[in-house]
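User: Predict the structure for this protein chain, please.
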Amino acid sequence: MTSSPTKHRLIRFTLHLLSGFALLLSSDLAFGRTDFTKAPTEVSIHNPEKTEGLRNRTTISIQVPANAGAKLEHVVLSQLSSLDRWNWGRRNPVIYLGDYSLRRRGEPGLSKAIISERGNELNIRFNPPIVPGRRVNIVFRDFNPKADIYQWATSLIPSGDDPITSDGPTLRLSVYRNIDYR
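Assistant: Here is the predicted structure, written as structure tokens:
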């Protein structure tokens, strides 16, 4: 039979092990989840042509912070209130790194865009993922939809196992009616 002091030490040791195990299970580290230590929040949308029915060059610009803690693998834009859906075009976008520029040309094949069946969600996946400290610009070409205010909620997803999505800012574009002022 064990003595009382030895029995108490064994019980305390067991409790320490159990509490440490419980703490590990409650943390994301136990499951190998990936998240941003500082999520990208500097996200903007540009469209130099504001008139309905005219050709557009819609550019989404995302700054991945230098201390993000993970690469940016994909971004999701979920269109909010509007009767019409934004025209993202049939081709995959082109991307370029660096500051936004109206005339910069992007490289094809570095991203893939998938539009949901209902047309209200755009999922852009980067290949390779965007490293921290870089700004990525995603360029789409098509035609502006009907005059309205178009808005999107943004979600940013890091590269890694079981990623945790970070919410980004709401993006907004206005398209105006095509009125001939002669």
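Helices lie at 4-26.
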